[in-house]
Amino acid sequence: MPHNPRTPQRASTGQSERALHAPADAPPTAVTPVGIGAFAYRAADWGEVKSMHVLKAHRGRGITHALLEAIEGAARARGVGTLRLETSRHFTAAIALYRWWGFVECGAFGDYDHSASLFMEKRLS
To answer: β-strands 9-12, 17-20: how paired?
Structure first.
């Protein structure tokens, strides 16, 4: 089914779903995505957190936590034992968030610019 821009996008948290809705002052029919995050299944034993971003005006509201919770749930549902991610060494707030979520630095992977990247992983099992 094609995407309907008026349909709220949902992040599954494994136990419940939280809609990521537009601001309260938006017209009632408008739905604006305020954050994105993705999980890429890479192998039987690991997956990758991809494309994490929350609009600046919506940060500090728990959206990133809901996205990471959903990604971790998707990884666990696939039987993934380790989540990995790549981020810029300059994204100190993101790095602090990932550390808070239990990610630790790991060796490089993928086709990233290794000179500008920080690689992290979290064991799920």
So the answer is: antiparallel
Task: Write down the pTM of the prediction.
Answer: 0.73
Measured in residues, the chain has a length of: 125
State how far the Cα of 2 lies from the Cα of 65, in Å rounded to an integer. 27
Tens-digit pLDDT profile for residues 17-58: 344 445 556 665 567 889 999 999 998 899 999 989 999 999
Q: How far apart are CA 27 and CA 2, in angstroms?
A: 23
Pull the structure tokens for residue 70.
């959903």
Written as one letter, the residue type at 100 is W
What's the 3-state SS for the chain?
CCCCCCCCEEEECCCCEEEECCCCCCCCCCCCCCEEEEEEEEECCEEEEEEEEECHHHCCCCHHHHHHHHHHHHHHHCCCCEEEEEEECCCHHHHHHHHHCCCEECCCCCCCCCCCEEEEEEECC
